Amino acid sequence: xxxxxxxxxxxxxxxxxxxxxxxxxxxxxxxxxxxxxxxxxxxxxxxxxxxxxxxxxxxxxxxxxxxxxxxxxxxxxxxxxxxxxxxxxxxxxxxxxxxxxxxxxxxxxxxxxxxxxxxxxxxxxxxxxxxxxxxxxxxxxxxxxxxxxxxxxxxxxxxxxxxxxxxxxxxxxxxxxxxxxxxxxxxxxxxxxxxxxxxxxxxxxxxxxxxxxxxxxxxxxxxxxxxxxxxxxxxxxxxxxxxxxxxxxxxxxxxxxxxxxxxxxxxxxxxxxxxxxxxxxxxxxxxxxxxxxxxxxxxxxxxxxxxxxxxxxxxxxxxxxxxxxxxxxxxxxxxxxxxxxxxxxxxxxxxxxxxxxxxxxxxxxxxxxxxxxxxxxxxxxxxxxxxxxxxxxxxxxxxxxxxxxxxxxxxxxxxxxxxxxxxxxxxxxxxxxxxxxxxxxxxxxxxxxxxxxxxxxxxxxxxxxxxxxxxxxxxxxxxxxxxxxxxxxxxxxxxxxxxxxxxxxxxxxxxxxxxxxxxxxxxxxxxxxxxxxxxxxxxxxxxxxxxxxxxxxxxxxxxxxxxxxxxxxxxxxxxx
Amino acid sequence: xxxxxxxxxxxxxxxxxxxxxxxxxxxxxxxxxxxxxxxxxxxxxxxxxxxxxxxxxxxxxxxxxxxxxxxxxxxxxxxxxxxxxxxxxxxxxxxxxxxxxxxxxxxxxxxxxxxxxxxxxxxxxxxxxxxxxxxxxxxxxxxxxxxxxxxxxxxxxxxxxxxxxxxxxxxxxxxxxxxxxxxxxxxxxxxxxxxxxxxxxxxxxxxxxxxxxxxxxxxxxxxxxxxxxxxxxxxxxxxxxxxxxxxxxxxxxxxxxxxxxxxxxxxxxxxxxxxxxxxxxxxxxxxxxxxxxxxxxxxxxxxxxxxxxxxxxxxxxxxxxxxxxxxxxxxxxxxxxxxxxxxxxxxxxxxxxxxxxxxxxxxx
Lengths: 576, 364
Hints:
By secondary structure, chain A is mainly alpha-helical. Chain A has helices at residues 4-13, 18-51, 60-66, 69-102, 108-115, 117-120, 123-134, 149-172, 178-185, 190-218, 222-228, 235-245, 249-277, 300-327, 337-340, 359-389, 395-407, 410-413, 416-426, 443-466, 469-477, 482-511, 514-519, 527-535, 540-570; strands at 52-53, 56-57, 103-104, 291-292, 329-330, 333-334. A two-stranded antiparallel ribbon of chain A has the order 1-2. In chain A, strands 3-4 form a two-stranded parallel ribbon. By secondary structure, chain B is α/β, with parallel strands linked by helices. Chain B has helices at 6-23, 61-69, 81-90, 105-113, 127-131, 157-163, 192-205, 209-219, 228-235, 291-301, 304-314, 327-332, 344-363; strands spanning 46-51, 72-76, 99-104, 117-118, 144-156, 183-186, 223-225, 247-251, 268-285, 317-318. In chain B, strands 1, 2, 3, 4, 5, 6, 7, 8, 9 and 10 form a ten-stranded mixed sheet that branches. In chain B, helix 3 packs parallel to helix 4, helix 4 packs across helix 13 and helix 7 crosses helix 13 (344-363). At the A-B interface, helix 7, helix 12, helix 16, helix 19 and helix 23 of A face helix 1, strand 2, helix 3, helix 9 and helix 11 of B.
């Protein structure tokens, strides 16, 4: 896209009036301030602690940590796990995106909601369900996968499949099919038309999804711990052990820097891949370009994609069905007893009860917190996406924009432990305000929003970037002010992506545990916290309740994803 | 193509805003946010309790305290046992709250050595019972015992009965061929019972021979799970998961929860000669804003109301001898008479070494 000849044009086009540049600075400033206070400052403070000994800078930790063979093994394992899982998620997810967003068939909406369920399930529950499937005597016990590298990779794909399906599908759904049809009409085979026309158009979305999945996988904590233990540790699990168990901030800080380097490298690669492929696309407003799913002879593409997707769906369903089936098992036989018990505070045969509130109360707290987190994430992430979507002419401005883009991805790449511990060190009086944010209920939605912002950016941005700048110019030429251009051009197109972003942000907040667990208020536990607490107590009833509560969490998520999709449909109103 | 008019769009927007306002926590007054600057001993003040993430008392118990004292209790739980103490160490210049509850034997010395606590001798009736479990060498009275439990191996009676294999009794038994591939424990680096058990083996066998013991366990097929729930529900045969292994690392208090509906005997039992004792302590934080409130809350943790609630809500044994244990616990969950003799100072001095050595031997 950086043809020298076109650059000149672009420079001329993108010159902004003075008033609106101030607005852009403001639009970039708010998210930056948010990121600085709730991410950069806490992380930097904690990492700095590890590098300062007796008031002097001490970088000896690097030599020390890198002289341990374990460090190298862990680094290699992290890259291998994340790399393999990302590749698999993309290879399996692209056909999934095709089937679920490009084809029409009964039950499609339900399936779309279904694939997002794993993304938010508490890892401890998935770990137990996964291991129940893989362990000796389980449905797949004969494969001897329990505790292996393959099991971890499978679990990482299980959690992240939906990220690829939705991010790629979201763009694909609105891709004008005429280009591919033209290629076909000119005699290209379906495969060739796909590879040469559609795939390049999907490139930015695939790169977006892959970088997200890589970040999620390389910083996966609970999944890796439950399924692989410290044998298959990642940098993230190692940071967790060094920080929470040993308080070895020196080692933890070195590892945090290593993780940042890995993440930054991955982001740079992804950004380069995206930039190479990014171009204005012809997007259609409706999903009307989807065709009925055709199976059988003569419809090789549909059939193959449907077969792959069906196989993946079975893989996703196995642990989930195990979960549901076991949630229906009560001490007195099969039934809904565990669900009825959600209105209680757990097994109280011993006199007391393991929860201080009922599971329903916790669900309500979760919904409330997630609402706040979603609003924050949408405002911050929406502004970032808007700013980053512009391609200013000046070289420095362009560079600033791409740095800004990468900056907001970092929260996904930094350990929740580092962020959580950093919060404790910095937020006692943030910006000199007389509020101890560390013990405030406000911090939970903020921490969740920090995690959700990158998701919002990554879902909205590919769509905004694909908008043909000529549309905005046309609007401006016709006399529309910058605000009007936003409303008339960007918003209607982005609204569809925003719907998905709302769904993702809400889902991620509902299921978030890492940051929440550092800030938890025991008197106002969220649903995942309650699940952990119940599953951490012996007693068949508590276990059953934990599973039922997980199913509730899964249903809430699926419901919210489905709702977000509906909203997306109804807000549509653009001219495209 | 469906189009919305400006009016319907406005209506949808307004509805969304209303819905958000109704669902928000920021909008809702939970009664305990606000600044901590108002914390004094006076009525209407706040006392902040810092606990581990499995803290819970039954509904209404803390309300009783708030009613009696006029204090508002605010809770924060920044992590599990180890993380909790480490966070207190990191924030000691500006503590997270007034009272900490949940520091256990394995991290007690660190909390004492790092100076995150201030002395307090409770005058509550149960204080004498609590004193029996005090940290040795805690001469200043920085930590007060609130409850305790034993980490022990549990066995699935039915599994052994069906196969006619005698159940193991001691730690040494587990290295014998008849118990090959039957034991699952948890990782001491990631789970608190795992750490307690490792400490117990070091205490019983000595800090050299315990390595041989673990090498033998490894050769005899010990399985390591990362967390308690994972081991208990997936690998253990005696719990809901019906896993393959009949011996699991759990607690002395676990068996009563395996009494089947309609029966009156549990299907599992604890091996009382394999236990390590964990005591959980509370202490007033150094630099607490509301010292008096913290002291009153600590007294309350020793009151009959809380002590009697502890077995059901926290799965630990009360230190108080004045309250009754639940009947099933009386019958099926006795504490060990001879738990491993461990000293918090030894643990503090050796924790990292033991975990590193253990990892090398067992995990590789």
